[in-house]
Structure formats: C-alpha cells, structure tokens
Amino acid sequence: MKNTNQKYGIEGQRAPELNVSRWVDKNGNETSPINLADFEGKFKVIYNFQAWCPGCHSVGLPSLQKMVNELEGNDNVIFLAVQTVFEGAHANTFERMVEIQKEYDLKIPFGHDEGDTSSQNINHIMKNYRTGGTPWFILIDKNNRVIFNDFHLNTEKAIEYLKTLR
C-alpha cells in the first residue's frame, strides 16, 4: 500500500550525492561532474529548475540571482543550479540550460539532470532529495545535512542567514 503521508524533502538527513553527469562551469563551458564532496566544509545552495517553468523565471531564478550577487566573495557559500527534468525533455534541454545561465548572468556551475536507467529515468535529485517540482531550493550545511528543501524560500531571510556564514 502506498504511503500517502510521505512529505517532500529530507530536512535533517545527510545530503545524498548529486549524481548529475552533465555540467557547465561558471562560464558555460562543459566540465566534469560536480560532487558535493568537492565542497566539503562549505555551505551549499542548490537551485532546481526547468527551462519551461514560469515560476522558475518569475520567482526562482531572480531569487537565485539576488542571493548570488549578495553573497559574492563569500567563499563559504557555494551556489549550484540544476535543471531537474521531470517532464518536457524536448524543451528542457542541456542547450537551453546553458542559455538560461547566460540570460540571468549567473556565474555559477549549472547541471542537467534527466535521470537514467539507474534512477528509472527520474532525475536523480528529485528521487534522492524527494523534491516536488520546480522551482525548488535545497540548502545543505557545511556538515552535509539538508537544512532546507522546499518550493518556498524567503529570499531576504536566506540572504541574511547566508551572510552570517563566514
């Protein structure tokens, strides 16, 4: 019997590895896969989106852009954006993801996660972090514990908190 009471997110749990194989660096150039282990001891903010998601463009990406700009120079906070494709693969392409990085002038790594046979073709982040769609923010502390995993992020409070991480 299916558990209908299972909530989204995994707050308080250890962050699973990302398992996203396609990435571009902060300049839009393809790069090797990024892992959480690459940022040991750092606070991580992961923004999940889809190219065709209206809320991602009206709220999520501007929120991410504001956080990235406000935290510029704080090496204790790492920002990553991942296109978590769970529908519309024809529109939510790797190429479109790169265009979005440039469109919003986000000088952070972007990943493209459409899953594979090991994840039953569900994107890895959605499956492992139990996300509920896009836009979606995941905040992971420097001990690799998920402290926030949800649609609704108060951008101003997040910035205020992130600025304390020095």
Tell me roughly what share of residues is in helical segments. 10-25%
Question: Strand arrangement, largest sheet?
Answer: 2-1-5-4-3-6-7
Number of helices: 4
**Compute the gyration radius: what is it?**
15 Å
Class per helix and strand makeup:
alpha/beta
Order of helices and strands: EEEHEHEHEEH
Uncertain stretches: 1-5
Mean pLDDT: 93
Question: What share of the residues does DSSP label as strand, in percent?
Answer: 15-25%
Number of strands: 7
Largest sheet features: 7 strands, mixed
Instruction: Please identify the oligomeric state.
Output: single chain
Measure the end-to-end span: 47 Å
Overall shape? globular
What features would you describe in this structure?
Strands 2-1-5-4-3-6-7 form a 7-stranded mixed sheet. Helices cover 25% and strands 20% of the residues. It has helices at 54-70, 94-103, 124-129, 155-162; strands spanning 22-24, 30-31, 43-49, 77-84, 110-113, 136-140, 146-150. It has 4 helices and 7 strands. The protein is an alpha/beta fold.
In short:
The protein is an alpha/beta fold and 166 residues long. Helix content is 25%, strand content 20%.
How would the blueprint of this fold be written?
Elements: E1 22-24, E2 30-31, E3 43-49, H1 54-70, E4 77-84, H2 94-103, E5 110-113, H3 124-129, E6 136-140, E7 146-150, H4 155-162
Parallel strand pairs: 3-4, 4-5
Antiparallel strand pairs: 1-2, 1-5, 3-6, 6-7
Helix pairs in contact: 1-4
List keywords for this structure.
single chain; about 170 residues; alpha/beta; 7-stranded mixed β-sheet; 4 helices; 7 strands; about 25% helix; globular; disordered N terminus
